[in-house]
């Protein structure tokens, strides 16, 4: 039996100090037909993007025969938080998420990444949790109509007091209870809490994992070999569990930004080689 | 320590009121207000909210030493090649000037932005200077000074050292656009406080007084890194009259922000005492 080859999907976040075109060209040169599209300035600032901007981007992607496996709107660094107790911020965050979903549809991305947002750390998390769950169910409902699957990603402990490990991720998926809301596994964020793909597979089941970012770490989003994670073992677990999605290369490190092309080549090369049948 | 101000950056997982209360508890009189969600975002600041914020600050007898809207991670770049992004960024700082004026901040921090790393530096530099000239004219109307810091080569390709900043200041040529020092990019550039004082003298209007790991990492609590903070402290106290802001950026400082700031203040206190040499060994 021949195993399905998982797509290696570089993310443009690595090129945030370069133009999107230079990223797309390098992805093509690396032999990647799939990308994970980071939605952030100066590449795709979703809040500012017009329908014409999205159409033009779709045309460029089609011209290069690049497929977007997942749209990952910037939320960690931007002024958005779907769990905020501030109605002004929350409303803008909801509009941002809904607009991101429409952008994903326009760009034919089958998956969109989401996060839970956060509450204040000096207050009980329950209320913020409920605001997050309420909005995620509305977003899932809309995603279902558009035929898009959401991939909920756990955040590091300094970024959120809501969904921040496999257990709280599962709790949110169960509570929202919509099949269009799945999980995103980021191997580096997971490893920072000593969690591995096996933990995610055991707690969630492979079929609920919508997207995987296979990056080295812990404590960073590094190219294969720049950290200490057992990525070959991770890959074996992921394949054995029957995961059939893409493997996002979400690499970011200050030192990568200056000259990202060699980093992208190295990371995509290492992963492609590891995916070759033995 | 009347010349020390504290930034709310590492309080970002707590409400703004918590930060302001914390300043009272720590007996800090001056703050550098980092303007970003969830504390205050200039794009989400209707007039009623702004006046409420002003009262939150003045009722606690706090003074805003510098107003610093988030611009390093938000989609803001006054040197952007994309004209829409650049225009939006200039507008963002015009709004920020109005907010700074309402909060009676004498300073507005603006970073010079960045060009694409794969285009000639000169092009981004020209766009930055042009934006800053516009902002300098606007700042003059309020009597607020724009202060600009250098950044490491990992944050911009335009202004990484004294020479770059000197050239930008000269090119903008506005009495309301001045240099400020951040000790982290200073150290990354291989410069020291002496060189900055010599280069800019009394035109140096503001300082971010931060320790660092010496490897290009983000701004740390005083005493947590490897910089000769005591030497910086003594020199700046002698020859510089503005505020020194404690700007704690590394994310491990988010969880218990007051504890981290208190630690810095105690270390500064120790540096100010005559027997500080011994105390220094124990911290």
Descriptive notes:
The complex is a heterodimer of chains A (278) and B (283). Chain A is α/β, with parallel strands linked by helices and 278 residues long. Chain A has one domain: Alpha-Beta Barrel (TIM Barrel), CATH 3.20.20. Chain A contains ten helices and eight strands. In chain A, strand 4, helix 4 (126-146) and strand 5 form a beta-alpha-beta unit. In chain A, helix 3 runs parallel beside helix 4 (126-146). The longest helix of chain A is centred in the middle third of the chain and has 21 residues, at 126-146. The two termini of chain A are 13 Å apart. By secondary structure, chain B is α/β, with parallel strands linked by helices. Helices cover 43% and strands 12% of the residues of chain B. In chain B, strands 3-2-1-9-8-7 form a six-stranded parallel sheet. Chain B has a three-stranded parallel sheet with strand order 4-5-6. In chain B, helix 3 (83-102) runs parallel beside helix 4 (121-142), helix 4 (121-142) crosses helix 5 (162-172) and helix 9 (257-272) runs antiparallel to helix 10. Chain B is globular, with a radius of gyration of 18 Å. The model of chain B is unreliable at 279-283 (pLDDT under 50). The interface between A and B is large, with 35 and 37 residues.
């Amino acid at each position: 039996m021949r195993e399905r080859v998982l797509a290696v999907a570089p993310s443009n976040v690595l090129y945030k100090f370069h133009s999107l075109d230079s990223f797309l060209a390098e992805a093509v040169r690396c032999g990647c037909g799939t990308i994970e599209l980071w939605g952030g300035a100066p590449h795709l600032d979703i809040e500012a993007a017009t329908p014409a901007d999205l159409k033009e981007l779709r045309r460029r992607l089609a011209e290069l025969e690049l497929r977007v496996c997942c749209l990952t709107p910037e939320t960690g660094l931007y002024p958005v938080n779907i769990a905020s107790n501030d109605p002004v911020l929350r409303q803008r965050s909801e509009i941002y998420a809904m607009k991101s979903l429409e952008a994903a549809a326009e760009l034919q991305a089958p998956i969109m990444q989401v996060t839970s947002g956060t509450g204040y750390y000096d207050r009980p998390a329950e209320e913020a949790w409920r605001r997050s769950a309420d909005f995620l169910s509305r977003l899932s409902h809309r995603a279902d109509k558009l035929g898009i699957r959401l991939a909920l990603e756990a955040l590091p402990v300094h970024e959120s007091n809501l969904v921040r490990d496999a257990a709280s991720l599962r709790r949110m998926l169960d509570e929202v209870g919509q099949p269009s809301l799945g999980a995103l596994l980021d191997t580096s964020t997971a490893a920072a809490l000593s969690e591995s793909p096996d933990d995610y597979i055991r707690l969630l089941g492979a079929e609920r994992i919508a997207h995987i970012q296979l990056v080295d770490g812990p404590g960073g989003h590094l190219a294969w070999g720049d950290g200490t994670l057992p990525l070959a073992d991770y890959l074996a677990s992921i394949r054995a569990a029957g995961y059939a999605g893409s493997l996002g290369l979400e690499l970011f490190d200050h030192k990568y930004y200056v000259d990202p092309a060699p980093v992208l080549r190295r990371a995509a090369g290492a992963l492609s080689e590891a995916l070759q049948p033995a | 320590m009347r010349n020390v101000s504290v930034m709310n950056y590492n309080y970002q997982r707590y409400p703004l009121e918590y930060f302001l209360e914390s300043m009272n508890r720590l007996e800090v009189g001056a703050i550098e207000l980092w303007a970003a969600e969830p504390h205050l975002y200039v794009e989400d600041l209707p007039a009623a909210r702004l006046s409420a914020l002003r009262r939150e600050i003045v009722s606690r007898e706090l003074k805003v030493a510098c107003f610093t809207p988030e611009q390093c991670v938000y989609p803001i770049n006054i040197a952007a090649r994309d004209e829409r992004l650049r225009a939006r960024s200039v507008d963002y700082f015009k709004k920020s000037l109005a907010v700074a004026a309402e909060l009676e901040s004498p300073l507005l921090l603006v970073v010079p932005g960045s060009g694409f790393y794969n285009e000639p530096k000169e092009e981004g530099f020209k766009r930055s200077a042009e934006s800053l000239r516009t902002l300098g004219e606007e700042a003059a109307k309020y009597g607020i000074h724009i202060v600009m810091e250098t950044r490491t080569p990992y944050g911009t390709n335009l202004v990484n050292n004294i020479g770059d900043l000197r050239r930008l200041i000269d090119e903008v040529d506005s009495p309301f656009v001045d240099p400020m020092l951040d000790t982290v990019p200073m150290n990354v550039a291989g410069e020291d406080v002496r060189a900055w004082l010599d280069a800019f003298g009394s035109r140096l209007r503001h300082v971010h007084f931060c320790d660092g790991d010496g490897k290009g990492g983000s701004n740390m609590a005083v005493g947590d890194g490897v910089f000769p903070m005591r030497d910086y402290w003594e020199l700046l106290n002698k020859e510089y009259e503005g505020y020194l802001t404690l700007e704690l950026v590394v994310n491990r400082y988010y969880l218990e922000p007051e504890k981290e700031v208190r630690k810095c203040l105690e270390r500064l206190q120790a540096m100010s005492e005559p027997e500080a040499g011994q105390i220094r060994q124990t911290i």
